[in-house]
């Protein structure tokens, strides 16, 4: 979400601290979704005060059968940076979806989105990531 | 996936990455259809590779230390007391209780309903508004008034039951009511009780008076009436008070 480990770490610690504070007041978070919701707002706040990615039209292309091999050659940080540069709410959607912790209903509930918006953001995210992948790991793509 | 309907395609785009059970039937349908297409397999491979990369994201030692005390961040389970006193639950509970009470009262009223209930209630209102001066002064035993009603007003079977027949009257009157027909009203000295005699409603098919067994009670605005039917005539004893005030007289039957 932030594209930076240190910022993410601070946000994580602030979120857990907030949960502990609420628990001490006798109002602990009702469910685990609270942590992700809270962390997301903190991420958005931090990102809004930081350097903004350039806005442009991202190229998109069909998912390649070689995509899994291309992805294998990536570092997790590269994916994190790519997702953090995506516009909202696509950034939050991709972050939560590829965390592979929540089903589509939970993501819709956490982000306050409709199914159509969620589906479109994931679908365009795949195609844009594939285009970026082709540019970043061209050797595998050419196979 | 191009051959799927728009709705199913929308769902298939959000398909679970891991091989877990779909959260609902709509998603299960979308998955079973999408699995027949090649590009869905490519999508799943793509998503799994990305999810695997996300799982490989290194976690710093500081964060790992936080997770050593993972229970701290566990969602709190609400106690049943806290759940019960939640405003929404409380409001629903109160609403259900009110509905249950109203339904109970209506059910009770239906159980105690008898032919002529509406007329009897109307006459309870008459009892509440009648002053002794409205009645023609007659001092006698209530049981002797049957002859008076027959001789003077041609009212047959307007008999006062045995439990009330020895009561001293202070006055009587006869009046016509749109619903009840010819009503005989007797004022008693004791407890300012009032007795009413009026025709029982008739069955619309057979034309016979509708009858019922024993005493039935009605209550309205502090007044209680005990009603009985005999020979097609309804008798009602009305008193300002409760059933207990009438019980001794009814026991004499």
The level of helicity of chain B is: 40-55%
What is the makeup of the main sheet of chain B?
A: 7 strands, antiparallel
Strand-pairing-aware structural class of chain A: mainly alpha
Terminal CA distance of chain B: 86 Å
Biggest chain pair interface: A-B, 46 and 39 residues
- Percentage beta strand of chain B: 15-25%
Q: What characteristic shape of chain B results from the CA principal axes?
A: elongated
Q: Write the element-wise H/E pattern of chain B from the N-terminal end onward.
A: HHHHHHHEHHEEEEEEH
Structural class of chain B: alpha+beta
Number of domains of chain B: 3
User: How much helicity do the residues of chain A have?
Assistant: 55-70%
What is the count of distinct domains of chain A? 2
Shape of chain A: globular
Low-confidence stretches of chain B: none
What strand order characterises the main sheet of chain B?
A: 1-2-3-4-7-6-5
Low-confidence region ranges of chain A: none
Mean pLDDT score of chain B, rounded?
A: 86
What can you see in these coordinates?
The complex is a heterodimer of chains A (143) and B (253). The two termini of chain A are 32 Å apart. Chain A has two domains: 1-52; 62-143, no CATH class. The mean pLDDT of chain A is 84. Helices cover 68% and strands 0% of the residues of chain A. Chain A contains eight helices and no strands. In chain B, helix 1 (6-13) packs across helix 2 (25-34). The longest helix of chain B has 26 residues, at 87-112. The radius of gyration of chain B is 38 Å and the shape is elongated. In chain B, 26% of the residues are buried. The chains are: A mainly alpha (143), B alpha+beta (253). At the A-B interface, helix 1, helix 3, helix 4, helix 5 and helix 6 of A face helix 1, helix 3 and helix 4 of B.
